[in-house]
Design a protein that fits this description.
Shape: elongated
Strand order of the largest sheet: 2-3-4-8-9
Radius of gyration: 20 Å
CATH class of the largest domain: Alpha Beta
CATH architecture of the largest domain: Alpha-Beta Barrel
Strand content: 15-25%
Number of domains: 2
CATH topology of the largest domain: N-terminal domain of MutM-like DNA repair proteins
Distance between the termini: 32 Å
Number of strands: 11
Length: 280
């Protein structure tokens, strides 16, 4: 699933290509794509017609396009969703779910989703954030993110550090890939109990989270398959810079020990058994 850097790459593309444009029409090609917009496709299209996209914003893995102070078009890419800017006369894609055309006759905005796990919806805003994601914690790049509050809440939890990093009510935007990479940077095993972490170690971990995601953003994100692309359909290249994720049995770049993989929450955790000692 795309994580914060991949979603931020898309947000920047939307800010460049669709902000300030008036929507001429919205077409829904698959009802599952707007399944969380309860009024349905006709109301969805009617409410979008004539609206102007103000900007493009993001919190964690969610994107939204404000249409004014009170409502916005909210999107989650799911496993395979793509928001692409496409010339309006281009053939319709096989997995096209929603299409926005614009009054200026310029490129469309198309939501394509092969596996249909993603979705878009119109929603009202609450304190500057779409209502359905108001419960999600700020991500580590937002001004609203408070390092001290995060440290206090983290130490109060009695769980494994990686579970905490994936808890969107504690910190948003961190997924499996970047959790493993940040834990490697901080020399922490994924199963380390959160209440055992010192304040300096938590600060080091947060620095690692920001470092690895900033580096990924500079390279357009991590693209493990052709579905993770920016608004122009281009893949990112951070996969080539990963230190542990997906590198089972390859040598750790820090100490040379073969990277290990362990099962974790129906997923995988990759770590260096020497640099990231397993807790007793």
């Amino acid at each position: 699933m795309p994580e914060l850097p991949e979603v931020e790459v898309v947000r920047r593309g939307l800010a460049e290509w669709v902000a300030g444009r008036e929507i001429a029409a919205a077409e829904v090609f698959h009802p599952r794509a707007i399944r969380r917009h309860e009024p349905g496709a006709d109301e969805f299209a009617a409410r979008l017609k004539g609206r102007v996209i103000q900007e493009a914003r993001r919190r964690g893995k969610y994107l939204w396009l404000p249409l004014g102070p009170d409502d916005a078009l909210l999107a989650h890419l799911g496993m395979s969703g793509q928001l692409l800017v496409v010339q309006s006369d281009s053939p319709l894609e096989k997995h096209l779910r929603v299409r926005l055309t614009f009054a200026d006759g310029g490129p469309d905005l198309r939501f394509i989703d092969q596996r249909t796990f993603g979705h878009v919806m119109l929603t009202r805003m609450v304190d500057g954030v779409p209502e359905p994601i108001a419960h999600i914690a700020p991500d580590p790049f937002e001004d609203a993110f408070d390092d001290e509050v995060f440290a206090l809440r983290l130490r109060a939890k009695h769980t494994e550090i990686k579970r905490a990093l994936l808890d969107q009510s504690l910190i948003s935007g961190v997924g499996n890939i970047y959790a493993d990479e940040a834990l490697w940077l901080a020399k922490l095993h994924w199963a380390r109990p959160t209440h055992t972490l010192t304040r300096p170690k938590i600060a080091e971990l947060l620095a690692g989270v920001r470092q690895v995601m900033s580096a990924a953003l500079q390279q357009g994100g991590t693209s493990f398959d052709s579905l993770y692309v920016n608004v122009n359909g281009e893949s990112g290249y951070f996969e080539r810079s990963l230190e542990v994720y997906g590198r089972r049995d390859l040598p750790c770049s820090r100490c040379g020990t073969p990277i290990k993989r362990e099962a974790f929450m129906n997923r995988s955790s990759y770590f260096c058994p020497r640099c990231q000692r397993k807790p007793r």
